[in-house]
Design brief:
Strand content: 25-35%
Helix content: 25-40%
Distance between the termini: 47 Å
Largest sheet: 5 strands, antiparallel
Structural class: alpha+beta
CATH class of the largest domain: Alpha Beta
Number of domains: 3
Strand order of the largest sheet: 1-2-3-5-4
Radius of gyration: 25 Å
Number of strands: 15
CATH superfamily of the largest domain: PPM-type phosphatase domain
Order of helices and strands: HHEHEEHEEEEEHHEEEEEEHHHE
CATH architecture of the largest domain: 4-Layer Sandwich
Length: 376
Amino acid sequence: MEKYNLAYTGEHLESSAGVLLKLTDIYENLAKRHHGNNPLADSVIVQLKEVARLMLEYTGVFSREVELDGEMKKNLDKALEKRGVRMDSIRVIERGDGHWELHVVIRASRRKCPTTREVAEIISDITERGFESSDNNRIMLNGIFNEYTFVESGRFHVVHGVARCNKAGNTVSGDNYSVNEVSKGKILVSLADGMGSGLDANQESSLVLELVEEAVKAGFSETAAIEMINTALAANDGLGAPVTIDMCVIDTLVGIANFIKLGAVATFIKRDGWVEIIQSETLPIGVLNQVDFDCSIKKMYAGDYIIMITDGILEAIPSLEKEKDFLEMIAQIPAGNPQGMAEKILTEVMELTVGREVSCPKDDMTVIVLGMFQKI
């Protein structure tokens, strides 16, 4: 069987990434000189940059090995010994995002049957970071030294609830949403509203969400994914309708939420007795060649709730200060199960239409409630 020099392969990829970055600079200069604002050229530049970044990540340029504190290592060794685990060595890899990955060579002591879950709990206690056993590990330790991998699992877990109502007379909603863990500790929540309503709007919003999610899962940054998709839609000679995008990227390891908006209405953060509003005045995806989006980064805490909505919710509120009235409404709703909160919000909005000339929904309505809870 042919053997490969992994060190050489890493160096080769790093060099190739450097070449791609140089090509990107050349392409960018040529595009400005000869094409001006060319959406295809912009898309190629974005893709070259992202491929180069992914190659560098693969070679470990954005990761490094760190030394575990001597006292911490000593305490870990003692704690494992008490639970019937012998440790031979430990390596700590710090990724580019600051998260740790531990490679520990351990075995069970005689007449003991410890599990990798127990080991993860001990590591978490000693390091004061949340760890869990990798999916590739055995469940039980045996008497032979083997290497086990433990990855940071985050201090929080996210629970979501969704409530929806179609526009009057429609059986299909133009709104689409997704809530997925795209990488370890990273939750991507996306809410898209296709222009108009019905099947066409549903297909447009569904396609955009699918493309964004697949690109992010493949390793592209959220903004790069949006830029590429926007370029494709804007260059499509109007064949695709604009779609509003409301994204929330939650890092459950450290409790950070990044809100990205393209034409989307306000998002609300409910904490204790007050509510914060995140607004945007951007255009939907696919309108301009140059993507236009707002980003807001917020620190999240256990007990926080994020409320994401489509414009149909605000349109159903019969007042001139719709966002203010909606904010006051959700401030009065008791915190609890996210699904129950989402249903309560939709019910109260629907009740506001009673007595109006048209009591049926004039637009599709979607409410997503995300609850941040401390991991036990």
